[in-house]
Fold this protein.
Amino acid sequence: MTDAVQAPARVALVGNPNSGKTALFNALTGARQKVANYAGVTVERKEGVLTTPGGRTMHIIDLPGTYSLRARSPDEAVTRDAVLGRLEGEPEPDVLVAVADATNLRLVLRLILELKQVGRPFVLALNMYDIAQRQGLRIDLEGLSRELGAPVVTTVATRKRGIDDLVAAADALVIKHEGHASVWHEPSAAEIRAAHGEAQRIMRTYVKPAERPDTFTGKVDGVLLHPAAGLLILGVVLFLMFQAVFTWATPAADGIEAGFKALGELVAGVTPDGLIRSLIVDGLIAGVGSVVVFLPQILILFFFIILLEDSGYLARAAFLLDRIMGFAGLHGRAFIPLLSSVACAIPGVMATRVIEQKHDRLTTIMTAPLMTCSARIPVYALIIAALIPNEKVWGWVSLQGLVMFGLYAIGIVSALLVSFVIQRLFWRRHSEPFLMELPAYKTPDPGGVLLQLWQRAGIFINRAGRIILPLMVLVWVLSTFPYPPEGATGPAIDYSFAGMIGHAIEPLFAPIGFNWQMCIALIPGMAAREVAVAALGTVYAVGDIEGSGLAALEGIVGSQWSLATGLSFLAWYVYAPQCVATLGVVKRETNSWFWPAVMFVYMVTLAYGASFLTFNVAKAMGWG
Amino acid sequence: MSNADLDAGTPLSLASVGLSGVIVRVDGTRAPGMLEPEELERRLLEMGFVEGARVRVLHQGLLGGDPIAVKVDDMRVALRRSEARAIEVNFD
Ligand SMILES: Nc1nc2c(ncn2[C@@H]2O[C@H](COP(=O)(O)OP(=O)(O)OP(=O)(O)O)[C@@H](O)[C@H]2O)c(=O)[nH]1
Ligand SMILES: [Mg+2]
């Protein structure tokens, strides 16, 4: 008997987008899934576990938000299938938790009427109850519970309030073990209207309108969504963001740089001269150090992105840019996956699941990798620092920061142009309807922001350890062996495998101005873009050039590369598909090898063309 | 016949910023586009654009006043004027 009572149970979180399901999931399970203030953050099913005070194991399932079980986009289909128990190898949930934004109940009440047809017992979690109370919203909890035939609990997911009550209510439903077979079907327009009428009646009976409704959002929007000022502010925000990436990071980056240099010298002092020292100092410390130096820049970028996401501004940016995106045959919402790609194209590609139309989604997937991802920062920053003078223009704008901003702008414009070609010329499509909720502004919670930054730093360091470190060993081996023959005159690296490979493919890249060291760096650079910087560092360090580390590399690039070559390398990195992981996720999301192949070919073509053009124009300008 | 006349409102797509009123009809056939009329209608309904709901036009974009941001009861929603044609409003 007790066994049956304490059998494991499955509990799924369902509700409108942005109602706090993931925040609740994190509070319940201790997970750290991404929470942000716009609709469509969660695009896949996530599972976590908790143990009730009575000892029952509960599998908690977080799902993408939806307005209806009808599922119009791939992410919503996940929710529908999970709720209806249609996912392969997964039984239907024992209990549903309908998560509602307590300040915005009308739409979720209609969704709940749909959920009731599914036949699973459910508990209603009135989340964001702190905001509801601040607004003086009065909800008759008992009446609502009676009306819906389900327990109602109030929660504040971000403060972990009401969590115990929620677990207890869900547990009680598991024990009661009620429910009936699903009678859900896709509602027609008439049925949706009828359900709305019912939801409206429930609202009127049990919810007293807010005494102090939120006026802040309206006031802020008056400025941020002003037709002209709004666009200007958006431009300034993005401009400051990329300037900051370049200018604020310097002190911290210098510190890390000095740290790695000291580490290198320390190790060099205690290891015997020879292979081991070369491997550790030239290969590992210099290679990894030259990438880790960029941690401050990447954190600054993420700091801005997190603020945009958590405040609720992102949806406004999508609103302001809708017309421009419309020109490219997409709608404003596609801007959100594109902006996510500024962090990394992989979450960007996944975020396209919120796009309903298959073609629009494909186009967004194909263009997302053109957005400047954070892995490009080390490459851009190296070349810019080495070849662009550190001057101020107009008295206060850093020229290097301006070039950085330019590269980001080129990425965005290219993404729009490619999407224009695909959507308007190739598929001759117009964009699907644009219907997007504009969430109320929220003040980002400092602790939450710090936690996310901490996670980001962890991911970055982890990458440096798992991908860059082993690759550096490989690059070092290839650049060191075989040794030059007796009596050889040229630099030793010319005789190594790396030298041979580099020289072999150099002719292919000569028309775009690449030297053989750059050619070598491109290959491990496929694993992750920033590896190219580390690989260059190792190749040059092994090649007997004085010193190692980023400063030394900057010196080498500054003295040995022409400006034309440097610009050509930048152009290559704007377009080239230098990232296997992105191609992999495109394969997964499109379920075919065709699209990643198309992506690879079109991006390589663009990259080669752009580099060729850049190199030759720069040469003609006398920068050769 | 007379019922339709009574119900007839102004398309939301024609509204300028600041106007508010009550939705009197949501009809997908009024906004031919990529979506089937029935599908557009269901999407609008699911987002809260339903007969009887109060709407107020809050903001509009720079080019051609598109898209628009409207308040539907307590929720802010952005949409394009081309789809807003499907929503007829009795403005105050
Ligand atoms: N004040 C307050 N804010 C909350 C609460 N719960 C969530 N939030 C905030 O609401 C926003 C949305 O939270 P999420 O957990 O991402 O919402 P979601 O339902 O998972 O959203 P989707 O994944 O897009 O469907 C975030 O900015 C949260 O910080 C709460 O109880 N009180
Ligand atoms: Mg979520």
About this structure: Helices of chain B lie at 2-7, 37-46, 81-84.
